[in-house]
Write a structure and sequence with these properties.
The chain contains 9 helices and 2 strands. It has 236 residues and is mainly alpha-helical.
Length: 236
């Protein structure tokens, strides 16, 4: 085998590895997007290897004179152009709204989300949360503890994942206690989290009971007013 032929053969093998990487990256990104992955500057890192792969595909097409490689390279260039345009627009918007580079929560390690990129939006939500503990925060904590997954808990509560992560981060940061720790791609309660779960469930149960009592009192008051109105009409 001549040297040019060997080079083309090695190039085809490397191109195949690149295609495997591209498919894996697309599938992984699609999965994270379904789970609510927020936009962040890390998306720029996806464009560089895609650009290299596009140029390599076109170069290999010129060496092998294969039409499908030329067509594939052209399609990759178009996709790369569209992707960079979208990312540039999202980056400009994020910088203008100041939601792109502010991420102090990354330093505390207080967010038990599925991926650190969610901390960007979580920090924004954290700055707007009332400093007092709320029933909503307790509901989020219990939902995350029961499902051992922030994204699933957020969907069950009809919340954004960033809001659910921020609620947990607030509880942990305010009281200096770690409630969850990462286990693989999931999370588990710490010892402090297990103890807090018992109390949180008790508080939520009391809140439900209080609502029922208030509803019953409201119903009793309406019944009394209705009876008095009936008596007044009857006397007329």
């Amino acid at each position: 085998m001549s040297l040019p032929a060997l080079a083309r053969s090695d190039g085809a093998i490397l191109w195949g590895y690149g295609l495997w990487w591209l498919l894996l990256a697309v599938l992984t990104t699609a999965r994270y997007l379904r789970e609510g992955l927020p936009f962040n500057v890390g998306w720029w890192g996806f464009t560089s290897p895609l650009g290299v792969y596009s140029v390599a595909t076109l170069a290999l097409a010129l060496q092998t004179h294969l039409t499908f490689l030329l067509a594939t390279g052209g399609a990759l260039v178009v996709c790369l152009t569209v992707l960079r345009t979208i990312i540039a627009a999202r980056t400009a918007h994020g910088a203008w709204t100041r939601r792109l580079f502010v991420s102090p929560c990354l330093l505390s390690g207080a967010i038990p989300g599925d991926f650190e990129a969610d901390a960007v939006l979580a920090c924004h939500e954290l700055s707007r949360i009332d400093p007092r503990m709320t029933l909503e925060q307790l509901r989020v904590f219990v939902a995350v503890a029961e499902r051992q997954h922030v994204t699933r808990a957020a969907k069950a509560l009809h919340l954004a994942q960033s809001a659910a992560s921020a609620a947990i981060a607030t509880l942990e940061a305010r009281h200096g206690a770690k409630l969850f720790h990462l286990v693989g791609r999931g999370i588990e309660l710490t010892e402090a989290g297990l103890l807090f779960l018992v109390e949180a469930r008790a508080v939520l149960a009391r809140a439900v009971s209080a609502e029922l009592v208030l509803s019953e009192l409201g119903g009793l008051k309406r019944s009394t007013l209705a009876m008095q109105a009936s008596k007044t009409i009857a006397s007329c």
